[in-house]
């Protein structure tokens, strides 16, 4: 599930993306389900729309502008659902804090440790997310680390979910 590699392959193999989209639509129609990511009444994909502009078939029509603004709005409302996902188990590592009601979460691999700190602080009604440390394998994680980075560097050969612990921040010295 590597989006960058997928984009490269789509650019190198002409017509592959359109063929894949067609197969996906046929599969879901055969099952009688809606195609994930489709807007009701959608007739062309963003890529087809962009390709027509590149080939000089651009029309100065209000409908095209309206469609592109709707597509832009759909992209903005994605909330990283199409990103690679990471399953996480958040456990409390201290008697000073209580555990979460729901310790299992699934989120974008692009989320950072800071996002998790803010999430935990909000759920535990803490005054500040800076009061928390998040650990993986007993090692404190940097706030700017993405979850993908944590999985690749500290959870390499272990099975999902990624097990992270949280505790009150400990000041050394």
From TrEMBL:
The keyword Amino-acid biosynthesis does not apply. It is found in: Nucleus. Its main location: nucleus. Residues 48-71 have a biased composition (Basic and acidic residues). GO terms for cellular component: nucleus. Residues 38-81 are annotated as: Disordered. Keywords: Nucleus. Residues 103-167 form the RAWUL domain. It comes from the Eukaryota. This is PCGF3 protein. It comes from Regulus satrapa.
């Amino acid at each position: 599930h590597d989006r960058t590699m997928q984009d490269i392959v789509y650019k190198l193999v002409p017509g592959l993306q359109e063929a894949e989209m067609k197969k996906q639509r046929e599969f879901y129609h055969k099952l009688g389900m809606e195609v994930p990511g489709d807007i009701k009444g959608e007739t062309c994909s963003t890529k087809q729309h962009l390709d027509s502009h590149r080939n000089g078939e651009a029309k100065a029509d209000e409908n095209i502008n309206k469609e592109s603004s709707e597509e832009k709005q759909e992209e903005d409302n994605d909330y990283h659902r199409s990103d690679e996902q990471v399953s996480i188990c958040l456990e409390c590592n201290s008697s000073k804090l209580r555990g979460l009601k729901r310790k299992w979460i699934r989120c974008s691999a692009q989320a950072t440790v800071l996002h998790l700190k803010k999430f935990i602080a909000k759920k535990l009604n803490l005054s500040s997310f800076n009061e928390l440390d998040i650990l993986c394998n007993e090692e404190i994680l940097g706030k700017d680390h993405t979850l993908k980075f944590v999985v690749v560097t500290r959870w390499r050969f272990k099975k999902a979910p990624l097990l992270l612990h949280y505790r009150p921040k400990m000041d050394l010295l």
